[in-house]
Amino acid sequence: RQHRQRIVAGNWKMHGSRSFVSEYVPALLGKLDTLDADTRVVLIPPSIYIGEVRAQVQNRATQQPRITWGAQNVSAEAEGAFTGEIAAEMARDQGCDYCIVGHSERRHLFAETDEVVAAKVEQIVAHGLTAIVCVGETLSQRQAGQAEQVVARQVEACLAKVPGNSWDKIVLAYEPVWAIGTGKTASAGDAQAIHASIRKVLENMQAPAQTIPLLYGGSVKPDNAEELFAQPDIDGGLVGGASLDAESFSAICRAC
Ligand code: PEP
Description:
The protein is α/β, with parallel strands linked by helices. It has ten helices and eight strands.
């Protein structure tokens, strides 16, 4: 297997509270002392709690930078009259290293297109953050045998504006829509096949296909993480539901 950065990112979605942060983060960090030195753990709370997560992680300075934090979404605009939005620069100002972009919930519930995702990726990398760019097919697309094609198109469109010198700021997350929050996971073999196909797409785009981390997401749990992460082209995971439990999430991180 090629040597690549390994990453486990926990997407809290719209869950958590100040008291959750103050209990969960110390509990999690206490369970990550034996983490593999090559693995990065990214905590991705709702943006209003990023400052609190940051403070908790910084209290355990010895674990940085292996344990870091990020944002779930930023605006496609740099700044201005966009009530309710946050800018990539603001995420950077809060010390974020990563930002999720193009999550299927953003695409389906907030009508984000590949073009919007591409504009957000541009903002994210321009401000020195790493974009975790989510792609994945729906159930009907998979059943129609179109999974590879759909994902290839998303990868090409979402990465269309990445400057040639910023590929080290890109992580892709393959998240089949039918596996997110459903308890259904792609088989390790099916996930690996899509990951391998994504590397081919990246190669065709003249991107450094062998060094870009590719994460799998969709109902990753302690009991399936090891098999998924053992696949040659799966470099870690984007974890939703199971990231809210320190015991489960730490087990997934250790499996990486
Ligand atoms: C996600 O939110 O990116 C995700 C994969 O969720 P879950 O792990 O709950 O399926």
